[in-house]
Structures are given as C-alpha cells and as structure tokens.
Amino acid sequence: MELEEYRRTALESWQAMASGWERRREEIERVTLPISEWMLQALDPQPCDTMLELAAGPGGTGFAAAAILGEHGRLISSDFSSEMVEVARRRADELGLANVEHRVIDAEQIPLKDDAVDGVLCRFGFMLMPDPEAALAETRRVLRPGGRLALAVWSTAADNPWAAIAGRILAERGLSPPPEPGAPGMFVLADDARLRELLQGAGFSVQRVERVPVLFEFDDVDDYIVRTTDLGGMFSRIWGEASEEDRAAITMRLAEDFAPFAAGGRYELPGVAVVAVAS
To answer: What span, in angstroms and rounded, lies between the C-alpha atoms of 187 and 163?
Structure first.
C-alpha cells in the first residue's frame, strides 16, 4: 500500500474507532498502567514544564503528566484523529485539568517552533506511523536541549499472544493479508536495534531501552471477541464481514490457541512493550 493511501485509510479507521476507545478507556488504562508509569518515571516531568503527547488517543498517559506540571505548566495533548482529540478533551474536562491544550497534530509535521517543549510522550504511536523517521526527526526538532522523549511500542508477535493469535488465525483463513515487511504495524519496531537506529538517526541519544510486561484478562472467547471488536481495527472489520462459517471457525481456533493461557476459569494473555527514553 502506498504511504498516502495508508495515511488516508488509517485516519478513517481511527476516526471510526474513537468511540470504542472511549468506551474501553478505563480498561485500556488499567492494563497499560505499568507502561505509562515507566514512561512518566523516565520522562521525569517537572512543575512548569511544557509537555507534548503525540498519538495521545484518550490521553491517559499525558494527563498523568499534566497533574505533575501544575497550573504554570502545560500539556499539549494531540492526535492525528480529530475524533480522538475530542475523546481526550472530554476526559480532561472530567478530570478538571485546566493546563491541557488539545490539538490535532500529524507527528510527521508538528506545527510547533524549534525547541518548543521540555518533553514528549508517545505511547504506541511511532510503530503505526507511515514515516517514523520523519516523526522522530520532528520530535527531536521541537524538543529543547536536554529535553526527553519517552515512547512505547509493542514487542514481537511471540511476546504478544493477546494480539498475535487472532491475527495469525485470520491470515491462515485467508481473511487478512500477510503483513508487508517494514510496513507500519504493531510489531514493526519490536527490534531493539531497529528502534535505536531510528532514534539515533533522528539525532537522539538513547538512554535506555527496556521491556515492560502487561496482562490482558478475558472471561472467555466471547468476551475477547466483544471487547476486541468494540475497539475497532482489522479484527473488528473482518469479524463484521465474516460469514457464520468463518465466525464459528475463528471462535473454535481462538479457544484452542488460548487454552495454554487458561487460569482460574478465564484467560490471561500476556503482552510485552518495548519502552525507551532518549534525549
């Protein structure tokens, strides 16, 4: 797929997915809390700082930083999807955060001056961007000297059965195309060396690259399907278009492949994020 076509379809998808992410915001934040906590500790925001969150989605990670920045600090919470920006705006209003500015921003073309912010957060964004090199170069440009970037991407498919199992089943049944090497996707930046190369190529000095485990819990296969389709994305689209025969086969295969992760009458599917801090 050409990059411009990918940009168009990705934006359409995230616009449509925003409502599901708003409904599932609390569980997403709960599961990914260890990742957000690592990023905030690594970023070490200070009162009065100006922080930028890219690909903020519902905004949870940045809002935790906003609470530290205080009334004289500022968080710019941004996403390339205007619908996601509105989700984050509603959540900031619920939290009573008066130091948050909400903006629609494409991370590959950040409309800020050079040296404009003290820190940048990006959780699960760079791996999905059509040109992560450009996005990281823009991030480096808007960071002040000594400023930090804290980011998270997903590790390998093997480390993330919560997502990889379903993707493999869909591909095996011919319902989804195999991923193109190097194309934007969940696992494209899973390799430490590749991530370090991109950061250094954008002018960053990499301080730490680590892994943070998380756990996704589901009552049963039906619970997995309901929650996954509610969030939108490829699985949701394919499930919505699948025949009854395909749905039955997918459900059976999910039960078989989830069996090793059964615990206490439910499923506990692990995940691993690669996290990094650079300046």
So the answer is: 10
